[in-house]
């Protein structure tokens, strides 16, 4: 949700910032802008509605020299996407420029106060209020930029990651964060800042993850200074080595990031289980679980909080943990959790699942659970993100950067880690026998090959997608482990193709949605040959007898469904708890190709952003 980037050093700042914005564009892409160091007494600010490529066009022929600058790619919160509301925002005198990710809750009151002091506003944004406030404090207190930013932030309620520069000081960038991420790249005589590490990859390999309520002063040719926003005292900071490679951030020959991410699932799932399954499948070791053995032994209950696709993974995790650990599991939307009067005790394990590790609602749910004494366990993809830093323990899914807005490999990675967690905790609790661990463990080790097999359906799915691009509505049905798979399939389709789709537990169809079935509405049924197969056959017949077309995901060699359904996609057989991983891959491809044939921007669907850092 909005990406910010900044650079100071010896390179051309514009080039570094544009490349950084392109890497951050998954966070928001309705407008973009850049501010470069003062030249002829003015900061040079260029903005454009639309994508970073629109900004590049708008800047053609303009002066983009200079070695210091800040930039922004926006996901609108306050004010429509246009050139005026795009960041960077300038203060009244034009001497200070800011880029901001987050939301300022008390901006209305502050704006009124500033208007009374003679300030005027060009945009509808909360961010312009902050930059005006910084200028107001600076003039009133006759102080430097750092002190003015610090004082202004004390008056702000809300979330922010900001970078601020000043016309009269081409050697300094002041940054701060509260509840929005900010990473600083530290190079030889050059420094960067960004909402995540991706803009820094390939330029610098040392990073500092700024903590909440910290500020930093980045000065040309001077060591980085990190200070507490509260006390103004220097804070200790760790310089970490970045492990990401440039190749991971590129499309690698695929037409989109999403397609690349679907096709790299075999390799990423191998990374996800690496070193975690031992003894030919009979032992599962997650250090986050093993190191907290007592918590898992003594727990009364597990509550899983997550949003969107991660919430779907949580629903699958519920089945697996209940089965392997014999513990009751509840799954909550993180956004609803804190408003539902949750009863949480110190005997609860709260698992927070998030690809980005920055989802505001999930972070708020974590805070509440911690306040109530629960043991909080994070399952996250982005290394160093806020969720792993705010949880008691956890596991990374290690599937590499996910750049396509629609989550694919993160989902299969999350389900994999939830399975590992359930097996590891089940072994500790003595609630799962070795034979079962070995069976599921071996199937997980085999999963890269299994998913490779599923990806061979690509050609068949392309044809199917051509047949169904006409549809305005889709129904997805599944039962047991695959009810959440149905939800996930429907979400993939709607978010990238803009076709209305609903996921339902198959048996619930007769309680309402069956009224929608006609020849115009295709139904996708996830029907592996599992314990609920016979029941789902009835649901397929109910759809068929009302004239609906059925696309069935079935196990290889299932002849009976071939006779019933209009189209069958055959997947290999795996233990029942792993069917969501295998069945979700054809659903990702189906959504992908339908969206592609409808001419959608698959990687950057309208209105969405990858990292939802606002409530
Ligand atoms: C859908 C999708 C979203 C995210 C949701 C939570 O494809 O990606 O529904 O799953 O916004 O994001 P994270 O997992 O980063 O907390």
UniProtKB/TrEMBL annotation:
UniProtKB keywords: Aminotransferase, Cytoplasm, Glutamine amidotransferase, Repeat, Transferase
Q: What is its EC number?
A: 2.6.1.16
Q: Where in the cell is it found?
A: Cytoplasm
Does Aminoacyl-tRNA synthetase show up as a keyword for this record?
A: no
By which gene is this protein encoded? glmS
Q: Where is the active site?
A: 2, 610
The answer to whether keyword Transferase applies is yes
PANTHER family recorded: GLUCOSAMINE--FRUCTOSE-6-PHOSPHATE AMINOTRANSFERASE, ISOMERIZING, GLUTAMINE--FRUCTOSE-6-PHOSPHATE TRANSAMINASE (ISOMERIZING)
**What is the uppermost EC class here?**
transferase
Name its species: Candidatus Pullibacteroides excrementavium
Q: Supply the name of the protein.
A: Glutamine--fructose-6-phosphate aminotransferase [isomerizing]
| Protein purpose | Catalyzes the first step in hexosamine metabolism, converting fructose-6P into glucosamine-6P using glutamine as a nitrogen source.
Question: Tell me, what is one Gene Ontology molecular-function annotation carried by this entry?
Answer: glutamine-fructose-6-phosphate transaminase (isomerizing) activity
Subunit architecture: Homodimer.
Kindly state a single biological-process term from the GO annotations of this entry. amino sugar biosynthetic process
Q: Which reaction does it catalyse?
A: D-fructose 6-phosphate + L-glutamine = D-glucosamine 6-phosphate + L-glutamate
Q: Which Pfam families match?
A: GATase_6, SIS
UniProt domain Glutamine amidotransferase type-2: residue ranges: 2-221
Q: Which GO terms describe its cellular component?
A: cytosol
Q: Which stretches make up the SIS domain?
A: 292-431, 464-605
